[in-house]
Amino acid sequence: MPADAAATLPDLRTVFGFGVAGNFAGHLEQAGEAADFVSVQAASAEAPKGIFPWFVPGAAPADGAAPAELTDAGALDGVPAFLGTFPVAADHVVRPAGDEVNLQIEPEVGVIARVSYDAAGQVTGLAPEAIGAFNDCSIRRAGAAKISHKKNWGPASKGFSQTLLPITDLDPAGPTRTLRLTCFLLRDGELLPYGVDSALPDYSYYGDQLLDWIVDRLNHQTGSPDTPLEPVGDYLRAAGRPDHVLIGIGATRYTPLGESTYLEVGDEAMVAVYDAASVNADAVADALRVGGEAALVGASVLRQRVVAG
């Protein structure tokens, strides 16, 4: 993390975590999740489908024990206890035991933003402070009632780079305009393209359009039994109106290999945000292949080894 960012950014254990569903054309179809949103009324065909929680500070039981079931009551009114388990790790991801456990990397940009509220607790604005490579890793649970049920299965079920890029906005014509997101799987010594290399401004919603839409969803998304969405804004207020949030702004498209390949113990999952004005895609891949990502200037790289749970 650059020193100027480290001085201001908070401990992630105090930061409310949530994601954006359906913010890159084609990803939900590839992940087999498009049918889950049939009852969700989006603003337009290209608009994201909604937001979902993956970490709510303070929601875990007071004794700190991990909840046994997804539906356990938590320490915060109305917030499921499992969302209080801190799921972020920078160097590994845990694969739960079982032959039918299917984990997929979800390559995303993670945005740390400061939140402003009005007197009633409604969100009035989001001010981006840093971005980084984020793995919104998902466990493919058939029939899961909510998106969050696929997102937090315990410690090290998410990934966020320790090297962050300070920003003050997401303007598609601003400093992030030349940034790109890419994703690889290292298996048995072979570097395999897992996500389609994509420009950040190619997100369906980006910049102020995305931030304004998220503010609206935090204030007005209620969730319902017939959709996979939840009242994320209510969870945010129940958590005491945290100063900062970490937002996964959406997973990009998979390569054919990424769409059909699940993580195995011993794999390495890699997500990188890099500046195409400084380095090309081949050089990024070459650096990741040999563990040389520290030499990439202006890049945020996440490398997680898959370990047994």
List the helices and strands and how they pair.
Blueprint: H1 3-6, E1 16-21, H2 27-30, E2 50-55, E3 88-89, E4 92-95, E5 103-104, E6 107-117, E7 123-135, E8 138-139, E9 158-160, E10 165-166, E11 179-187, E12 190-199, H3 207-220, H4 232-238, E13 244-248, H5 256-260, E14 268-275, H6 281-289, E15 300-308
Parallel strand pairs: 1-13, 3-9, 4-15
Antiparallel strand pairs: 1-2, 5-8, 6-7, 6-13, 7-9, 7-10, 11-12, 11-14, 14-15
Strand content: 25-35%
- Count the domains: 1
Number of contiguous helices = 6
The CATH architecture would be Alpha-Beta Complex
Order of helices and strands: HEHEEEEEEEEEEEHHEHEHE
So what's the oligomer here? single chain
Terminal CA distance: 28 Å
In round numbers, the mean pLDDT is 90
Largest sheet properties: 8 strands, mixed
Structural Rg? 18 Å
**What name does CATH use for the topology?**
Fumarylacetoacetate hydrolase, domain 2
Shape: globular
Low-confidence stretches: none
Highest CATH level, the class = Alpha Beta
Number of strands: 15
Estimate the helix proportion, in percent. 10-25%
**Structural class label:** alpha+beta
